[in-house]
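User: hey, got a sec? need Methyltransferase domain-containing protein folded
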Amino acid sequence: MGHATDNVAEERHTFAMTSDVWDEESARRYDETSAEMFTPGRIDPAVDLLAGLAADTAALEFAIGTGRVAVPLHARGVPVTGIDLSGPMLDQLRRKPGAAGIPVVAGDMATTRVDGEFGLVYLVFNTIANLRTQAEQVACFRNAARHLTAGGRFVVELWVPPLRRFPPGQTAVPFDVGPDHLGFDTMDLVTQQGTSHHFWREADGSYRRGESNFRYVWPSECDLMAQLAGLELEDRWADWDRSPFTSGSESHVSVWRKP
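Assistant: Yep! Here you go:
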């Protein structure tokens, strides 16, 4: 345990965290602007899979946010602990029914350590991309491994970079075009840095703009990060329903196991 703590302290001094942090207004609007992700069709398959992987062990969620997955997973009888960089997001979580039994720690998912060991650590909704350097993403895998018991699993839900949608010379690609929201990504193919640009239509007809920054990462790069952390790939699916992962898949749910 002491050795792991020394490693965390060392990593904190090798890079400065670059993640965007949700402020109070963004946290307050989060559940509304992400309403599609809160539907039973989105949540139930994720909770079913995670509950099965956790079995009779405890789970740790990196970037727990407002508890979209943690609250229903906890309601299924899985003891859940959470880490999040945004205090306002944790405030929103604490206000939710059923969240009182979920311990949370304010901190970054690359270096923050919580007490105990877990049979499951998970990170959903593309959030590992919020860590905007390769070093931070590698540290996140290592932090997950430090929290896992032998045989425990690290689960990541992540999109596959849609670079095939970029015609030569184009710098932006839309990912959502609807009556109330327009979203497109700009990406640098050399640095793997990107920005999601959002335009939301308000009730009075005006538009509100928002941006979030990320570093995209390939499934194969995730596997190498897992290997560096001492984890082994166990499964990879295209979604929470365990559809086969193919060259045409736009996302993946990957499971790495600690030997």
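Quick note: The first helix runs from residue 2 to 12. Let me know if you need anything else on Methyltransferase domain-containing protein.
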